[in-house]
Amino acid sequence: MRQSAAKRIITPRLQAGYVVYLREAERAPSTINKYKRSIARLAEWLNGRPATKEEVLTWKHRLAEQGMSPSSVNSAIAAANGFFRYAGWYDLQTRYLRVQRKAFRDSSRDLTLEEYRALGRQAYKVGDIPVALAMETIASTGIRVSELAYITVEVVRAGRADISLKGKIRVIMLPLRLKEKLQDYCNTRGIHSGQVIVDEDGLQYSRRRLWGRMKCISAGAGVDPSKAFPHNLRHLFAITFYQASGDIVKLADVLGHSSVETTRIYLAASGEEHRRTLDGLGLVL
């Protein structure tokens, strides 16, 4: 993959090879698609110019100047650094933006338990049973949208799933009520093997597809559409699980996080919770 510095052009062939490289590394489909888009945008920005350290640094600063959030910029950098390693352009790798962990999070886009239930009721009301079950499965187990593929008839019968991702295997238990609902669904639909929760075309739900359906349902549910996205279901699971168990290490294992620090992001107190803590200190005379 090595090219001389003068020939470091991000070609379509290199981009296609990078996608194969990511698949062989067993990266999640959503990550592969995100990195693919980031490299395509980097190539478009270079517009045929060779990739140099100066160009990469300029690109990084431009992303920040365009108003992208630090986490989005760092995601693009991760995609670029991975591509540079794949291409053998190790000297082009660049540092991430330094982001101080927030003392509290903006809870304005959090999905509350009542809002989640309203979405579920509306999905059942309009007959969108697969979406309702997809939401319930993610919210009650903490799995990712891409991991719905592991919820098969065989897994439902066993009540547990062995999920393999990024070279790690973790066990996910199905709540008894969820197991019963999925079994009833299989019996009603005549599903005897394979994946249980698929869209109307029999295809696995992508994050974008499920997101679109949740937004459609949100209007009838009286839920702000900006809150109706799949990752909010996983976030709701994390908050609820931690409130019940107080075990952040176990939560990290259930969510499939490599680091507890990642899990801490999910559990940061909201601004209102932080204010109540400050009020309780009694330090205002």
Can you give a write-up of this model?
The chain has helices at residues 12-24, 29-46, 53-65, 70-87, 113-125, 129-141, 153-158, 176-189, 207-221, 230-245, 248-255, 260-267, 271-280, and strands spanning 160-165, 168-173. Strand 1 (160-165) and strand 2 (168-173) form a beta hairpin. It has a two-stranded antiparallel ribbon. The chain starts with 11 loop residues before the first helix and ends in a 5-residue tail after the last helix. The longest helix has 18 residues, at 29-46. It has two domains: 5-92, Tyrosine recombinase, N-terminal domain (DNA polymerase, domain 1, Orthogonal Bundle), CATH 1.10.150.130; 107-274, hpI Integrase, Chain A (Orthogonal Bundle). The protein has 285 residues and is mainly alpha-helical. The model has no long low-confidence stretch (mean pLDDT 89). The protein has 13 helices and two strands, in the order H-H-H-H-H-H-H-E-E-H-H-H-H-H-H. The chain is globular and about 60 Å long.
Task: List strands and helices in order, with pairings.
Elements: H1 12-24, H2 29-46, H3 53-65, H4 70-87, H5 113-125, H6 129-141, H7 153-158, E1 160-165, E2 168-173, H8 176-189, H9 207-221, H10 230-245, H11 248-255, H12 260-267, H13 271-280
Helix pairs in contact: 1-2, 1-4, 2-4, 5-6, 5-9, 6-10, 11-12
Keywords: DNA integration, DNA recombination, DNA-binding
Pfam families: Phage_int_SAM_1, Phage_integrase
Protein name: Integrase
Number of helices: 13
In CATH, the topology of the largest domain is named hpI Integrase, Chain A
Number of domains: 2
Q: Provide the CATH architecture of the largest domain.
A: Orthogonal Bundle
According to CATH, the homologous superfamily of the largest domain is Intergrase catalytic core
Question: For the largest beta sheet, what order do the strands appear in spatially?
Answer: 1-2
The residue-averaged pLDDT reads 89
**What characterizes the major β-sheet?**
2 strands, antiparallel
State the distance separating the first and last CA atoms. 67 Å
Helix content range? 55-70%
Rough outline? globular
Strand content: under 5%
Rg, nearest Å: 22 Å
Spans with pLDDT under 50 lasting ≥5 residues? Answer: none
H/E order of the elements?
HHHHHHHEEHHHHHH
- Secondary structure: number of strands: 2
Q: Quick one: CATH class of the largest domain?
A: Mainly Alpha
Q: Structural class per helix/strand content?
A: mainly alpha
Protein name: Integrase
Domain Core-binding (CB): 9-88
GO molecular function, one term: DNA binding
Organism: Collinsella tanakaei YIT 12063
